[in-house]
Amino acid sequence: MSANLTLTHSEVPAKTGLKAKPVYATQFGQMYCGDSKELLSRKPLSRLRGKIQLVFTSPPFPLNRKKKYGNFQGEAYIEWLASFAPLLAEYLTKDGSIVIELGNAWEPGSPVMSTLTMEALLAFKKRSDLYLCQEFICFNPARLPSPAQWVNVERCRVKDAFTRIWWLSPTQRPKADNRRILQDYSKSMQKLLKHGRYNAGPRPSEHHIGERSFFNDNGGSIPPNVLIEGFVADLLTMSNTSASDPYQLFCKKEGLEIHPARMPLQLPEFFVKFLTDQSDLVLDPFGGSNTTGFAAERLRRRWVSIEADPGYVEGSRGRFMT
Fold this sequence. Notes:
With 322 residues, the protein is an alpha/beta fold. Helices cover 26% and strands 20% of the residues. The protein has helices spanning 36-40, 74-82, 84-91, 116-127, 148-153, 187-195, 246-254, 266-275, 291-298, 310-316, and strands at residues 6-7, 24-25, 29-33, 52-57, 92-102, 105-106, 113-114, 131-139, 162-169, 201-202, 208-209, 226-228, 236-237, 281-284, 302-307. A hairpin with a 6-residue loop joins β6 and β7 (113-114).
């Protein structure tokens, strides 16, 4: 797609009280560079309080090794993530949602998983009295074997190939409509609808299937809460294996570093469709390569993204130049 970019400067005003300005703007959104807590506390972003329908983000994971894109460890990570809960909740509409992707963590030097991400999620939830609406699993079968020591060297574990996605809200009934994310019916379901024959009656599970229980064509099947790369068992396609997408080509051309932890575009698209309408506003406070903003742009939703690293911000412009 194409979008008209309005380029400004990539430096955020250092003095408190000065208005922050976006690095670039598109038809539907704006990208800012700086610390998200600081930027959300000043104009113009402070005017968005109570107006964000969806916060979709993938914050840095609590990895054992420090990464260039930043990550805390141990109790510091729990406190760091939880400290964002009151701020982000304050920006939500009354029926808004916060969706957070969190990867797994391992104990340093040990083939034992850490509970750090789960503790951080619970601390985040409690800090603003949020409801946990649903948990999702994003499975990537193409992920390289890790942790390498336990999987490749000692061969005492299998590879870690999924992340958890947590959907939270200040209300038990946030805006959501699964009719916007229906999947194509399976071949067997299409055949059933065509011929109108089905083996009705009781099942060992004690469910009773009526004579016409599955004969309504609702336009597609309701997706599960497992999101997977590759179309397997009617699960949602999640792919991030391309090495020549417009974003990467732009970064290579401009000599910019490619973000090492990009999420597949289908992931934010799924939740933007599910949890927002076209008039709604989407926020990503840890924008990275701005996959969230690009997904919102494609779906004609308004968006705001914030990223602390100026290089990643500059590289993210490449998503909107095709």
